[in-house]
Specification:
about 325 residues, alpha/beta, Rossmann fold, Zinc Finger, Delta Prime, domain 3, 3 domains, 6-stranded mixed β-sheet, about 60% helix
């Protein structure tokens, strides 16, 4: 969620959007443009990248107009402006033009800090647009999106949506909008599950399938992809546990048709066929070793260790190694 300074007038002479979250940066721009066009439908909007703002360009864009038209000038990646262009912007900040709103988008790091400091000193309206790297931040974002649409969702529904969609704020915002449009009344976990949960489960079970098949490199690649897209580590440990337990159940079961085994083990027939293919390299000792690895990973993910991702990687390697125990003899 963008955090704003006390000056929350989108038509202030200068808006400074600081951060690296693209969705929030775009929304900061959209808010200014919408306010300007509400005041004057003919507002002229100029949206420029840092390399398009050459020395002299800002003076040209902000020169007095014969018709005194309202104008919004957006400068993206302001931290990358050339030294001469920075001088132009700083000079403009000292004498802004009426009816013109300047919007600077700045990554917020050390690069271009002089311009950032100058804009703040000039009294800019500031909108913070930080990258949301923590699941708790994304959860708060989802809740705020529901509130902004005048809808309510249970805490479990919001968490399920974050677990299923991952870290992409645009996708999270789109999912909230779709749910708000499609669902009447309160939005609960069951509704979100029908729409989205399969995405995270599919990703998690891909990791588990590759691991129990002994395909270490592919399992690690799937794990890293899942984590990078925001799949909750607890979903992955759950999938790993289910995969190993299925191997153990089927290896100790009596032979028979898939339909009979499905009833005995509580698995669908198609899964019986898949697990039969996956269990070729497994031994009873391998299953025991893999289950211990999953238990350790589960403890690491739920707070028993400092690095959940490393705990998952260790478990994936241990399971894949156990899957090849019979071949190693």
């Amino acid at each position: 969620m963008p955090r704003k300074t006390a000056n929350d007038d989108p038509l202030a002479p200068l808006t400074l959007a600081v951060g690296q979250e693209d969705l929030l940066l775009d929304r900061a721009v959209q808010q200014v443009v919408a306010a300007a066009r509400a005041a004057d439908a003919d507002t002229d909007v100029r949206d420029l990248t840092s390399d398009q703002l050459q020395p002299g360009t800002l003076a040209e864009l902000t020169s007095p107009s014969l018709f005194a038209e309202r104008k919004v000038v957006v400068v993206r990646n302001a931290q990358d402006l050339s030294a001469d262009s920075v001088k132009d912007v700083k000079a403009y900040l000292g004498a802004p033009v009426e009816e013109i709103t300047l919007v600077l988008l700045h990554a917020g790091g050390a690069k271009g800090k002089g311009l950032l400091d100058a804009a703040r000193k000039a009294g800019a309206r500031e909108v913070a647009c930080p990258k949301m790297t923590k699941p708790a931040d994304r959860l708060a974002f989802v809740r705020s999106e529901f509130r902004a649409l005048g809808r309510t969702a249970t805490p479990e529904a919001s968490q399920t949506l974050v677990d299923a969609i991952g870290s992409d704020l645009r996708e999270l915002a789109s999912a909230v909008t779709q749910l708000a449009a499609d669902v009447e009344g309160n939005i609960d976990e069951a509704v979100v599950g029908r729409y989205y949960t399969g995405r995270a489960e599919a990703s998690s079970f891909t990791v588990a399938d590759r691991a129990v098949e002994g395909r270490t490199a592919e399992a690690l690649e799937a794990l890293r992809w899942s984590l990078s897209t925001g799949v909750a580590p607890v979903l992955i440990t759950s999938a790993l546990a289910q995969g190993v337990r299925a191997i153990g159940k089927l290896s100790s079961a009596r032979g028979g048709r898939p339909a009979d085994l499905a009833r005995e083990l509580g698995m669908p027939p198609w899964k019986i066929d898949r697990v039969r293919q996956q269990m070729r390299g497994w031994t009873p000792d391998g299953v025991a070793t893999a289950l211990r690895a999953v238990a350790l990973a589960d403890a690491g993910v739920k707070g028993g260790g400092d690095d959940p991702e490393y705990a998952l990687e260790k478990a994936v390697v241990a399971i894949a190694t156990a899957a090849r125990a019979r071949q190693g003899r």
